[in-house]
Amino acid sequence: MSQNPVFLSVSAIRLPCIVICILLVIVNFRAYPFGFHAHRVLNRKAVFALPATMLVFYKNHLDFITERSIDPDRRAHVIEGEAARHFLDADHFGSYPFTEIPRKREKAIVRYSLDTLEKYGMLPWAIYDHYQLLVKAFETMDAKRILLYSAYLGHYVADACTPLHTSLYYNGRTYMSQGIHALWETRLPELYASTYSYITGKPEPIDCALEKAWELILESHLKVDTIYMVFYNLVDSLTADRIYSHEMRGQALQRVFSADFSGVFHANLEGMVERQMRRAVNAISGYWYAAWHEAGEPDLKPLVSGSLHRRLQRFMRSEERAMKQNGSQSGFQRYR
Ligand SMILES: [Zn+2]
User: Fold this and answer.
1) 133 CA distance to ligand 1 centroid (A)?
2) 35 C-alpha vs ligand 1 centroid, how far in Å?
3) Distance between the two ends of the chain, CA-based, in angstroms?
4) How many whole angstroms from 76 Cα to the centroid of ligand 1?
5) Which of 77, 226, 270, 296 is spaced 20 to 30 Å from 134 by Cα?
């Protein structure tokens, strides 16, 4: 059985008005695929999948790579155009495998217009852009930007491994499933990511950065139906008081899926979240490795320096100042 409108209405009638009002407070997590915790974990684990020739440099700046993994989400509502870089609503344009969408941005813009793409997502091209920036940083041996763009590229690659960021139905198909986005990619990783295995072997071979981005997105999209099927099967077997609980998040009391429900949902997904997180680690390390390889495999040992930590702090302070002062004209966009 899929959605059950009777179940919803009966449950809602029983609830006092104040609780109904609370239920309406559903936060839009669209720009936060794989919650902050998961992004940090993924960038960190990807470092350890690198070959020794790269590991020596990356490991020395593990905290930077980890912490900067969430910058793209933090600026999603500050920098114009940033939010669209985190998703692609592929099913807006057609059906799998979405051959009607030109893989190259220029052709996609001609077919659909830039406005349309900014509405329905620019994720594959965000990955491509940051890959190119990273290649350039390796070519010029710019240690600060190697680290910064590695962190950012890791973020967008991880986004491509989150199924709900490839669909119009990113946060529910009905009222009942509102919040499924945060459940799948924030709450479940927060609860279970520490139990997962992240052993991936060598970085994933990547011949073409743009093709790989599309491959990841298509793979992810195939999992959307499974997520909803598992969700509705479970919802139909439980009463509302077992599905939801309420938590203070910041100043607001919000409806969240209960720990009990989250645990059974996680189990019924049969390892999907863990597999996608491992997939992301493999792809992130693959992109970093491919960029280094394309830049001619420069020797990174000369970049290993204690003073780089201090220079990185100054660099990021000036970046953030520029971003605040100049809004969309600063920060990331200056390097495009
Ligand atoms: Zn994101």
Assistant:
1) 18
2) 8
3) 49
4) 8
5) 77
- The answer to whether 40 touches 66, Cβ cutoff 8 Å, is yes
What distance in angstroms lies between residue 155's CA and the mean position of ligand 1's atoms? 6
Separation of 33 CA from ligand 1 center, angstroms?
5
Q: What is the DSSP secondary-structure string of 209-247? A: HHHHHHHHHHHHHTTHHHHHHHHHHHHTTS-HHHHEEEE
Return the DSSP state at 256. Answer: E
Encode pLDDT of 269-323 as tens digits: 999 999 999 999 999 999 999 999 999 999 999 998 767 777 887 888 877 777 6
Predicted local confidence at residue 309, as pLDDT: 75
Distance 236 CA to ligand 1 centre (A): 31
Question: What CATH architecture applies to the domain 33-171+195-224+269-335?
Answer: Orthogonal Bundle (1.10)
Helix (H) or strand (E) holding 252, with range, is strand 252-257
Which H helix or E strand runs over 44?
A: helix 36-47
Q: Where are the domains of the chain?
A: 33-171+195-224+269-335
State the distance from the centre of ligand 1 to the C-alpha of 19, rounded, in angstroms: 31
Residue 102 in tokens? 């030109």
